[in-house]
Amino acid sequence: MSLWTSLEPASSTVDPGGSTKVRLRLRNTGDVVDEYRFEPVGDIAPWTTVEPGTLRLYPGTTGTVELTFAPPRTSDAVAGPNAYAVRITPTEHPEATTVPEGNLTITPFTEVRAELVPPTVKGRFRGRPRLAVDNLGNTKLTASISGSDNGDHLSYDIHPGSVQIEPGRAAFVRATLKPRQIIWFGSKEQRPYSLAVQRSGVKSQSVEGTYVQRGFLPRWLATFLGVFMALAITFVMLWLAYKPQVRSAATEKLQEAGVSTLPPSPSASLPLPQPSIPAQAPTQEAPAPTPTEKPAGGGSGSDGGSEKKKKETKAPEVTAATAVTRLAADDPGVRHICYRAYETGEGWQKPVCDGAMAGTVGQSRPIKSLNLAVSGTKGVNGNEFVHVKEWLNPWTSVADGVDLYLGSTKADDPYMLAFGVNVGEGTICQNAHIHDQAWLGLQCNKPPSYIFGGTMDQTLWLEAVKFTV
Questions:
Q1: Does residue 224 belong to any structural domain of this protein?
Q2: Residue 241 maps to a domain
Q3: Which one, 55, 125, 342, 461, has least CB within 10 Å?
Q4: Burial degree of 45 (CB within 10 A; 0-12, 13-18, 19+)
Q5: Does the model's pTM come out above 0.85?
Q6: 196-253 pLDDT, tens per residue?
Q7: How many CB atoms are closer than 10 A to CB 39?
Q8: Are residues 349 and 452 in the same domain?
Q9: What pLDDT score was predicted for residue 365?
């Protein structure tokens, strides 16, 4: 070897967002003039610069170059020791390449961003917001989640109560807000609340939200019922007060004429005339009803007769769960995922499985709903991001072989822009095609993190998807 090198110092430390320098000394121990080219290699090479990039040395002379390390203040600059190297290539003898190595320690930093999705929820008995926690630092984040409000009007059910998030990742926390008192009648009331992200040794970070509690019955209905009950009571009272009196007009006329209405005394001398009883006319029984004659030919009467009409049975709908169950039976022991898309103006497509395309490309048919089912992954869960209304529902989880539906097939409901899915065990991959754009590329993830596919741009929509597990 005709080259001697030395890093000064061999190990150094740098803060993310800052910079540090290391000197590289080298001596030409050969017998010819040579020019050396320098190239940083390794994981931190994108953040490393070498000045100068080339150095020409005479035999027996020594030169120096400076290595400058400037890692960004992002989650990409993972905290801890990081090995680095510089490839030195002689121009005269390129086969005699030298790669001196050193160590650079990146100091840790923490940065957390939390956001409520949506910031305002409405409901009569409960509200279900979600808290998105992003770890923007370069170390693993461990934090607990709690809820509070002024006046103690709400109770909180938070799942999970604590999270561990890798650098550059995010986690969603589901919260259920329940009012301690139900508003039976009256207008809605706003209940401000906050969800706090608490890390050990650090002041908690709170995210403000609003729960709009609606009344069980609207105020106008309470007013209507009150007026109706008052009118009903008034009617009953008037009816009882002015009940008509029924009297005999014949009795009043006899009293005016001075005739006694008392019956005659039995001691009268004259015998009382006996009324004559007319002969009773013989009664005539009604003729017995004749039985209804059956129509000729043995046909059924008005009730349908003894013969039953055959009913046509409609074939069951083939869903993603139907397809994945059949596929798992034909190919047991292997993980599968089947899915289908509901296209605007076309309806449900037939299910496809394991990487096939669901939906259409270039035909301007937005996907309104997705139907997924898995086998061998311990279930699947997901949520959808729709036009204008953003995330539509809370996360929904189903077991293996059960249909999971994202989005809505109602005519007036918005179409889908994106989705987030995850499986209970293993890896799930997705590829999405957006209107007027190309396929976004295959992306995979493992639990507990979810995989996101689609777009947040409200001017676009989801056209086609592919899934594998």
A1: no
A2: no
A3: 125
A4: middle
A5: no
A6: 999 888 888 899 999 998 876 666 666 777 888 899 999 898 888 876 555 555 445 4
A7: 15
A8: yes
A9: 92
